Amino acid sequence: xxxxxxxxxxxxxxxxxxxxxxxxxxxxxxxxxxxxxxxxxxxxxxxxxxxxxxxxxxxxxxxxxxxxxxxxxxxxxxxxxxxxxxxxxxxxxxxxxxxxxxxxxxxxxxxxxxxxxxxxxxxxxxxxxxxxxxxxxxxxxxxxxxxxxxxxxxxxxxxxxxxxxxxxxxxxxxxxxxxxxxxxxxxxxxxxxxxxxxxxxxxxxxxxxxxxxxxxxxxxxxxxxxxxxxxxxxxxxxxxxxxxxxxxxxxxxxxxxxxxxxxxxxxxxxxxxxxxxxxxxxxxxxxxxxxxxxxxxxxxxxxxxxxxxxxxxxxxxxxx
Length: 320
Ligand SMILES: [Zn+2]
What we know:
Elements: H1 2-23, H2 33-37, H3 46-52, E1 72-76, E2 82-85, E3 89-90, E4 98-99, E5 107-111, E6 118-122, E7 128-134, E8 143-147, E9 152-156, H4 157-160, E10 163-169, H5 172-179, E11 185-193, H6 202-206, E12 213-220, H7 227-236, E13 245-246, E14 249-250, E15 256-260, H8 263-278, E16 286-289, E17 294-295, H9 303-307
Parallel strand pairs: 15-16
Antiparallel strand pairs: 1-2, 1-9, 3-4, 4-8, 5-6, 6-7, 7-8, 10-12, 10-15, 11-12, 11-17, 13-14
Helix pairs in contact: 7-8
The site of zinc ion has 8 residues, from loops.
């Protein structure tokens, strides 16, 4: 069944290409079969093309990833598919990055055109990677994927881990309004923290007896923005000296508070409170350890963005 589907697909693909070629007479862009095969892939430099498409070899000892020992994933330069994990990398002193195992299914072995060696290619796009050698005694797996550095990109683990930070500064609509626009912020959610009722509703919190504060969960990319950036923005977008709420919103759920996730965040928050006190502000902001974040009802999320309005209770004032 699959073979038949493949044949039908091939016939369809070929006829589509032919149709495109014919339509070219009517000023429709023509694509070659090679271009069709690489549609959606990353553009390659001439040197990358020489290795990845024309099965060339980079000069030994020249690859950027040769000495890399960081934790992360090596992905295909052409299609971004993960190929190898850093745990499989070892130093074979051969001048090319070496791995004793691939990510399952990521690499295909082919008989090399020279009839001797075994070529390895990306299973997803067919891009040339290098060659694989067996039983050389380097590691227990007795396998050496000898890969051109130029055929791969490296994505460090730490680059992929987004961080979460929690800030309460009065009405969460206004807090979120500024954080969702900040550099490096990938996502924001508004909700409640610090109380003694599980999964509270907005109505419950408004009764002011659950102990919760309205706050914003800020999910940011630590390679683009830092926790310090977030803390500065927090102080610059509300009145942190107000002791009974925020602006016209009076009540315990509107108090100013940083919920820290670890000692490092606590130290940074403490540092900025000290800086502000030194500047003469009487800082009312509380510091509390993070507890369960209870997301608020959907109609509160990205409230001002959804309504196309600006906050009445928060404004930006440059301090730092
Ligand atoms: Zn690929």
